[in-house]
């Protein structure tokens, strides 16, 4: 960036932090330098500064990884957001009622992805969950279906038209027309479910979180199918919808 308002050293430090991802959780100094487009000597100085602030850590083998300070800041962002405020009570109530894993996900309609922002683990030894901070493309699980159903129908159709469909299990939604048909049912009942569609043997139910008439995320209960018969999914879906005060519109 050539804008005089930007501080080059800060931009380079951010480039270094953004070089890390799920596929590259640890990087060598040379890789940090290449990501920021700077000499290794400059990258080393920036890395030392980031380490001193807790944003980077260096292992005994010389590789670098993200530091715990970022996790702390991530928690601040999550807890300060509207999604957290809107779902805190619902998470507590549905966790107490179900005893199963409860997830809250943020939906980004620009890049068509979902991000797990909060979770409560099941009380059982065998549980199903997803790590906080995990971002994935919109799929055909209950979280995506609940959020899509809360969009105006025409907008939902446009989003679905750009989605990829692949059978992960024999019960997976495999086409846009099949998904759009399910969205009509979800709008009527107020919650979305999945039963072995994304992962064989895993079921779930989700309700959209709506703010200013726009879905910004969803709350979901995820459990082994053996502990989540259809009757339980219906009960949990109705409870979450009532707790949020407004589910799918």
TrEMBL record:
MF (Gene Ontology): DNA binding; DNA-binding transcription factor activity
Key words of the record: DNA-binding, Glycerol metabolism, Transcription, Transcription regulation
Role played: May be an activator protein for the gylABX operon.
PANTHER family: HELIX-TURN-HELIX TRANSCRIPTIONAL REGULATOR, ICLR FAMILY (PTHR30136), HTH-TYPE TRANSCRIPTIONAL REPRESSOR ALLR (PTHR30136:SF24)
Protein name according to UniProt: Glycerol operon regulatory protein
Database matches in SUPFAM superfamilies: GAF domain-like (SSF55781), Winged helix' DNA-binding domain (SSF46785)
GO biological process, one term: negative regulation of DNA-templated transcription
Organism annotation: Herbiconiux ginsengi
Ranges where the IclR-ED domain occurs: 69-249
All copies of domain HTH iclR-type, residue ranges: 7-68
Record-linked PROSITE patterns: HTH_ICLR (PS51077), ICLR_ED (PS51078)
Cited Pfam families: HTH_IclR (PF09339), IclR_C (PF01614)
């Amino acid at each position: 960036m050539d804008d005089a308002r930007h501080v080059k050293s800060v931009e380079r430090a951010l480039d270094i932090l953004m070089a890390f991802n799920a596929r590259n959780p640890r990087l060598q100094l040379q890789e940090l330098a290449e990501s920021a487009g700077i000499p290794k000597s400059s990258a080393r100085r920036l890395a030392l500064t980031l380490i001193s602030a807790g944003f980077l850590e260096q292992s005994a083998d010389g590789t670098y990884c993200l530091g715990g300070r970022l996790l702390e800041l991530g928690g601040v962002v999550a807890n300060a957001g509207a999604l957290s405020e809107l779902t805190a009570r619902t998470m507590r109530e549905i966790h107490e009622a179900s005893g199963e894993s409860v997830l809250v996900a943020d939906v980004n309609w620009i890049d068509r992805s979902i991000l797990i922002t909060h979770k409560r683990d099941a009380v059982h030894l065998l549980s199903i969950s997803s790590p906080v901070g995990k971002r994935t493309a919109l799929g055909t699980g209950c979280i995506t279906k609940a959020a899509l159903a809360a969009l105006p129908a025409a907008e939902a159709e446009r989003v679905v038209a750009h989605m990829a469909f692949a059978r992960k299990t024999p019960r997976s939604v495999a086409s846009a027309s099949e998904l759009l048909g399910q969205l009509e049912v979800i709008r009527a009942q107020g919650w979305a479910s999945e039963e072995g569609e994304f992962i064989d043997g895993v079921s779930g139910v989700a309700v959209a979180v709506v703010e200013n008439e726009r879905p910004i995320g969803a709350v979901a209960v995820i459990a082994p199918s053996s502990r989540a018969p259809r009757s339980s999914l219906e009960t949990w879906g109705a409870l979450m919808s009532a707790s949020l005060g407004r589910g799918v519109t």
